[in-house]
Structure formats: C-alpha cells, structure tokens
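Many introductory courses stop at the sequence. We go one step further.
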Amino acid sequence: MADAALPIRMLHDRILLEPSEEAGERKSSAGIVIPATASMGRRLVWGQVVAAGPHVRQANLGDTVLYDPEELAEVELEGRAYVLLRERDVHAISEPAEQSSSGMYL
C-alpha cells in the first residue's frame, strides 16, 4: 500500500499523511484569520493518506482521515512536510460524497 513516488516504505500499522491546509491558520465564518497558535479546545484536523504499512486495515491510499495534530510525528521527504501516525491514532475516515444520477433535487 505504499506510494511508489515516495522514497519510503511504511512498516507495521504506520500511516503517512499529507496535512490539509486547515492544519495551520484558519478563517472564521466572518473572515477573521485565526492563527495556528491560538489557544482553544482540542481541534482535530484532516489529512490525506499517501502511504500505509502492511498492517493498516481501515485506511487506504487517498483516504482523507481525521487526526489530532498534537499526537503526531512530522517528517520531511523531498522538501515536503508529512505527518506520521499509527492507525489507532486516526479518529475517522471521510466517506466520499455520493452523486445522484437522477438529476432531481429534493
């Protein structure tokens, strides 16, 4: 389940994620920029699976997963920052949006 483009082979139940843009600064619904260092409750963030070890059972390459940014290890590969987690540290996996083929809107 490893991405052939990355010079790394994941082991055991480890997952390599590409963090989403929201992991840093965010904007409120009113457009106010909230810095990443702002103190607030525990905020989980989304990331995309780019590599997974052989014992990962739930997450697949390309899945978008929810994780706690305080429980992670960061690694830099080929000039890009990635997040390294165990599968058990993933809180949820995003389901793809279903497309209605009928063309009807209710």
